[in-house]
Structure prediction request, 706 residues.
Amino acid sequence: MIDNMQNTVLKVTSISKSFSNVKAVNNVSFSVNHGDIFAFLGPNGAGKTTTLRILLDIIKPDDGQITWNLDGISNQMPKAGLIGYLPEERGLYLDIPILKSLVYLASIRGMDKNEAKKAAMKWLERLELADRAKEKLQVLSKGNQQKIQFVASILHKPAFAILDEPFSGLDPLNQEMFIDFIKEINNQGTTIILSAHQMQLVEKVAHKIFLINKGEELYNGNLAGIFDSYGNKQIIELHYKSGLNEDLLRRFAGAENVEIIDNIKVKLTIKQNYDMKSVLSDLAKLEGVFDISSHKPDLHDIFLHLVKSH
Amino acid sequence: MIMNYIKQLITVTSWEFSRFFKPKNEAIGIIIMLIISAVFYTASKYAFSEKSPEIEVYVHNDTNGSLTEILKDGFIVQQLPSDRKDDFIKELKVDKNKVLLDRKEGAIGLYAYKNNRDIKKLKSYLDDYHKQMELQKLGISAGQLASVLSPATIEESFVLSDNSRNRIILAFFFAGLMIMAVFLSFAYQFTAITGEKQLKITEQIVSAISPQIWMDGKILGITLTGLSSMLTYSLLSIIGGVLYFQFTGLPVTGILNFLHLPSIALYLPFALIGVLIWNAILAAIASVITDPNNSGKSSLMMLPLIFVIASFLVTRDPDSGLTIFLSWFPLTSATSMPMRWAITEVGIWQLTGSFLILVLTFYFLRRIAAKIFRVSILLTGKEPSWSEVFKLMKMK
Prediction:
């Protein structure tokens, strides 16, 4: 049972997993409460997917414990119907009609076939794909195939959904659509673990953040908390008319971190308590700079800072 | 727990079955096969019935007319004047239907435009003529010769008979169907498993069901597909048999002699478990294959050929040490034991023991297949070697 925390639906305690000599996950602990949108963030190869696969019992941890409490009594892996999973490496049966695939994937999670058919048609209508329900998936565009894959993972109305990189490969319009879908299923009672790279999208939906790098925890807490802890520095963005001088910028005394965005754009993280007046005055003297703006760090900036300093 | 297993197993089994068993495609295949057979039958019948102009046989030097007399039954025969022989041979280039037979001392010269079916027929008449001439020389009548050449009259009486010829035919029939089911399954299993791996569907599925249920569903669903094809072709064979009996004028009830019920009751369970075992092996192999076009492991899919070899070995000597071993060894016993039962004396304990080993082997093979699948789905990039797979299987 979960430490008398009735609201906690998943508790991960000190899990570790190694492959050959590589420690993919190292002593990771976190908990997810009912109704959370829990963002699981980290660079490529950080151990996110391995952790998610451990949660789903696809692979076993070397050490540690996973405790679920989705149906109020269970402390082991919950029934398949309570979980929804959108894997990072995803795919569907390309040569089988869309509706048939959706019904099958929902039925192996225990959903009644007729109910699954009705629910699938509702989703297809929302996605304006209802008239293509009997067509094979391979005739759809990549974007539409992504939508079908998302529907396949949540069609059975799971209590807990694990979405691994749900925004990858989507254009900005569809990314916004997915944000709305995630908020909607969350409002309907589905707790969500969301693994993603798109920080600006994560900021829009996540309640909690877990940042992992090289298999280790870098941050675990509320979204607001990460800004309280790491958001009090100043970020200055410089725009150049033409090519910037990277060497000069890296030698800039007030900068704690220099992130070259492209040939004409650079972000400087200014050292805490550094005199902003002198910083701005020094930067204004740089040759070729035509625009200077400053802002507090966003999640993307904090993510980079934490990963680089790990 | 068990109910959940059964429910999920039925879902996966029926999915795999419906993915691959397409009654419409099966019917189209059968119709195409029947059309091709009908076309070949009609064409060959027409080809053989086609009447070429009848040949005219001219006989030279048949002074006593004995050769002409024999040939009269099958050909238009005329005597050729002795001075016409050379001209006749020259004219054969034009008179293509004429044949000259020139009786010589100890031989017959045959001159024709080309060798064909009529010449073959003519040669058989000449053989008869030669025999008659030789018999006349020896003073033996035709009746006496027939008696000398006739086979011995044997009154057969066996302790172990039990209509065994028909049982062997039935055993071969089942072995053939089983081999067909295994090879059909091979194609489906390949598509089902490597296809799902390539389409990256497996992770989504094993997050919902255990690898064991997934593997059991695949083995059962694809076995059912193979068996359905088996059933279709069995029915077709029975219909073909009925037609054969009707065409040959034999009583149609003759086909019932082949439907020996105790044999069917024995062959069916052996065949069923045999196909399941091979499907479990093929599924395990397919689980490790990343790219079927470039995998060295694809050749392992030809392993079921040992079925065919084992079946033939049993018929050669059903009681040798090797065939007794084959009838117990679970990868060959599904065909070898029923085959031995049909040919020789096999105790009930042998049948039961061999069947139990078969069932137990299937039980463990499906578990090994699921374990191999479990470790293989998460391996991406380079295809793992068998030693890598077994190493991973030992891990948690």
